[in-house]
Design goal:
Layout lengths: L8 H25 L4 H15 L8 H10 L3 E2 L6 E2 L1 H16 L17 E11 L11 H11 L13 E8 L2 E8 L12 H18 L4 E7 L3 E4 L16 H13 L5 E8 L5 E4 L2 E4 L6 H16 L4 E5 L4 H14 L2 E4 L5 H10 L4 E3 L1
Parallel strand pairs: 5-6, 5-8, 8-11, 11-12
Antiparallel strand pairs: 1-2, 3-4, 4-13, 6-7, 9-10
């Protein structure tokens, strides 16, 4: 006997919308995993949907595809569809929602950092004038009141200790380089480490664009060598048959940040392997076995250069091998930066907790 269950119209609509939301979330993950290949992501979604019952009667992969076209997330002819700019934004927003939305303990983006930024709008609070304050910030009404209280009934005289100035917001600006390891080990032994790492990067892009529009974010991919790529190419970045040239990545990141005028500069490095390569006399020197003293020394020298220019390195290591842990500790000590040894399950939250803790608004 066929069982038919009748639902309230609004309840049925909510459940139907939940199905769409689940499908979009899975599709977003698959797009990142498949380096932005819409066709491959849709084929995997259809397979998963049939296997796990994600689709409903009257709403299958064809209807889902038409919704993506209608919302301008994808465009093109069937079989040759690609992401639109809105589709790229969809991936970033979904990553941000999934990663940052669950940080219930994050302090709302405010906390102390080393250097204050430019002055913002005046506040209602005042304080005594100090040498070096801008005369345009003087609150003349409060200053004259101080003078009259000091000499009631006498002639008006204004002294320096009568002056008060209005406080101003101090907005912190930051320039960040996100270094992403695209060496072959990021997919070695059947473990997909590149997908969560890319989701972190995508969420960072969306976070900075929406909440910190005055900040700068640059993306550096490093394997045998390092190269800066436009942020919009991040969904399409994939792992290659590369070794890990950490020195080249740090050097390029440092050169990028030294050109920035922001009051705070930092490097986030997401990697799962030890340095195994470096360029020497225009040739790639390789040693994938153990910790090569030459490669380690030159990588640590680059970390020291970053420290000399006030650029901290935060390393997120997706491995727990004792040799790798020892190397990261050396790098962190040399740079006086930070290090996290993360599993694939908690990498995303640790990145965002640390990024948010390096944001603040100060009052001088």
């Amino acid at each position: 006997m066929t069982l038919i269950r009748y639902l309230d119209w609004s309840d049925g609509q909510d459940r139907f919308l939940d199905v769409k939301q689940v499908l979009r979330r899975v599709f977003s993950w698959l797009l990142i995993q498949e380096d932005g290949d819409v066709q491959a992501a849709l084929q995997l979604l259809e397979m998963l949907g049939e296997r796990h019952g994600l689709f409903r009667e009257g709403y299958g992969i064809g209807e889902f595809r038409r919704d993506l076209e209608r919302d301008r997330i994808v465009s093109g002819t069937p079989g040759e569809q690609h992401l639109t700019p809105r589709g790229e934004r969809f991936i970033r927003s979904d990553s941000l929602d999934q990663i940052f939305g669950g940080l219930k303990t994050a302090p709302g983006g405010d906390h102390a950092i080393p250097h204050a930024g430019e002055s913002g709008d005046p506040l209602s609070e005042t304080r005594p004038y100090a040498f070096g304050d801008d005369i345009h910030d003087i609150d003349y009404s409060r200053s004259m009141q101080n003078s009259m209280r000091r000499t009631p009934g006498a002639g008006f005289t204004l002294r320096e200790d009568d002056l008060e100035v209005r406080e101003r917001e101090r907005f912190v600006s930051a320039a960040t380089v996100l270094m992403l390891d695209i060496s072959h080990s990021m997919i070695l032994y059947g473990e997909d480490r590149i997908t969560p790492a890319k989701r972190v990067a995508l969420a960072l892009v969306e976070l900075i664009r929406t909440r910190y529009p005055k900040d700068a974010l640059h993306l550096v991919l490093f394997g045998d060598d390092a190269r800066e790529v436009p942020l919009r190419e991040l969904p399409y970045a994939g792992v290659g048959p590369y070794h890990t040239n950490t020195q080249a990545g740090l050097r390029l990141a440092r050169h990028i940040l030294m050109r920035k005028k922001h009051s705070n500069r930092q490097i986030f490095m997401i990697t799962d392997g030890k340095p195994t390569a470096l360029w020497e006399r225009n040739e790639l020197y390789l040693n994938p076995f153990g910790l090569d003293p030459k490669i380690i020394r030159k990588t640590l020298n680059e970390a020291a250069e970053c420290r000399r220019y006030g650029i901290p390195i935060t390393t997120f290591m997706l491995a727990r091998d004792p040799l790798l842990v020892d190397f990261v500790k050396q790098l962190t000590e040399t740079n006086r930066g930070r290090a996290y040894f993360s599993s694939l399950n908690d990498l995303e939250q640790k990145v965002f907790v640390d990024f948010i803790r390096n944001r603040t608004r100060r009052v001088r």
